[in-house]
Amino acid sequence: MDAQAPDQQTDAAKATPDDIVVRPSTDADAPAMLAIYARYVTHGLAKGAEFEPMQAGDIKRRRKNMQKHRLPHLVAELNGQVIGYAYAVPFRKRPAYRYSVKHSIYVHENHLRAGAGRKLLPALIDACAKAGYRQMIAYVDSENQASLKLHEACGFRRVAYLEGVGFRFGHWTDSVMLQRALGDGSDAPPPDHVPVSAVGLGDVSMESD
Ligand SMILES: CC(C)(COP(=O)(O)OP(=O)(O)OC[C@H]1O[C@@H](n2cnc3c(N)ncnc32)[C@H](O)[C@@H]1OP(=O)(O)O)[C@@H](O)C(=O)NCCC(=O)NCCS
Description:
Layout: E1 20-24, H1 30-42, H2 44-47, H3 56-68, E2 73-78, E3 81-90, E4 100-107, H4 116-130, E5 135-141, H5 145-153, E6 157-168, E7 171-181
Parallel strand pairs: 4-5
Antiparallel strand pairs: 1-2, 2-3, 3-4, 5-7, 6-7
Helix pairs in contact: 1-3
C-alpha cells in the first residue's frame, strides 16, 4: 500500500464511491495527510482559505493523543492512495463537555466530488457514536458551500451563525456552526462508562476548523 500519495494522478472521474475505502489512519499515513493539507495551504489564497503550517510530527502527535482518548482519526483510500482524512477532537476541554466532539475533514483537491467526503464523514460519525460521544459540532466558513452541503447531507443542522470571527487575507470571515446528535443525544443521560476521563483532557490538541 502506498500511503505517500505524492502526486495523486489518479483519474478521480473514473472512481466511484464504492472504490473508496475508509479505515483508521496509521503513522505511515502522516505524509499523505500532510500532502493533502499542504495543497490547501499552497492554494489557499486562490480559494479564499488560509491554513496553519503543519509538520508530519504534528499529525503523529495528534493521532497519539486522540487514540488515548478513543477519538477517531480516519483516512479514505482509493486504489491504495490516501485521498482524504477526518478526525474528531474534544469540543471543549472542560469535563462537562466530555460527550461532545468537533471535527475536521479534508479531501485531496484532485479527488473532490468523488464521494470521499460522503464516505469519511458518516464513518467518523459512527466511530464517535460508538465511542460514546453524544454531540458532534462543526465550524464551517460561511462561504464553504461544499462543506456546508456535505454536513447537511450527513444530518448536521445549522445552529449558529458567527459573524466576523475570522480574519484572513484582509477580510473578516463568518462561520456557521452545525451540530448533530449521536446515539441517544441529549434524550438520555450518559452511560456510566465515560469515553474520556476528566483527568488528562488537557493534553489533547484542540486543533480543528
Ligand atoms: C468539504 C469536502 C470535505 C467535501 O468532500 P468531497 O469528497 O468533495 O465531497 P463528496 O464528493 O463526498 O460530496 C458529498 C456532498 O457534499 C456536497 N458537495 C461537495 N462538494 C460540493 C461543492 N463543490 N459544491 C456544492 N456541494 C458540494 C454535495 O452535497 C455532495 O453530494 P452530491 O455529490 O451527491 O451532490 C471537500 O470539499 C474538502 O476537503 N474541502 C477543503 C477542506 C475543507 O473545506 N474542509 C472542511 C472544513 S469545515
